[in-house]
Amino acid sequence: MIMIMVNIAEAKAKLSEYIEAVSQGEAVVICRHNRPVAELRPIAPARVGPRDLAPMFPGETFMTDAFFAPMSAAELQEWEGSELFPARVAEQPPGYGSSRPRRAKGKRRP
Q1: Tell me, what's the pLDDT at 108?
Q2: Rounded to the nearest 10 degrees, how much is the dihedral formed by the CA atoms of 76, 80, 83, 89?
Q3: Is 22 within 8 Å of 41 (Cβ atoms)?
């Protein structure tokens, strides 16, 4: 694969040329002050039909009938939480500053 490196100003001036180069199989790297920041490359062709997941699960069925069976009482307790398995709750993010809303500068209270 051929790679072209251009600065932003040149990419803006010749964008249609670089898009044509990308369609021919080349990659275009766009730089800011000679440092790469972006890349133009062709997108993958659109997929026709659903993706086959069978290779991820060789010899297995993707979803068995047990998936649709109701949970036992023990499984429900594990899922919902109990003394043995407490429910996990995400921590609250730390607060920054005071909880009072700030008033805009320059405005005085009547």
Answers
A1: 62
A2: 160
A3: yes
Give the per-residue pLDDT at 17: 93
How close are the terminal C-alpha atoms of the chain, in Å? 70
Locus of tokens 């659903």 = 50
Owner of token pair 């700030």: 102
Q: Using alpha carbons, list the distances in angstroms from residue 58 to 36, 53, 63, 67, 92.
A: 41, 9, 13, 19, 41
* Structure tokens that stand for 18 in this block: 């670089």
Fold of 3-40: YefM-like fold (3.40.1620)
* Confidence (pTM): 0.41
Averaged pLDDT, groups of 10, the chain, 110 residues long: 86 93 89 93 76 72 78 81 62 59 60
- Looking at residue 94, what is its pLDDT? 58
Burial of 68 (C-beta count, 10 Å sphere; 0-12/13-18/19+): exposed
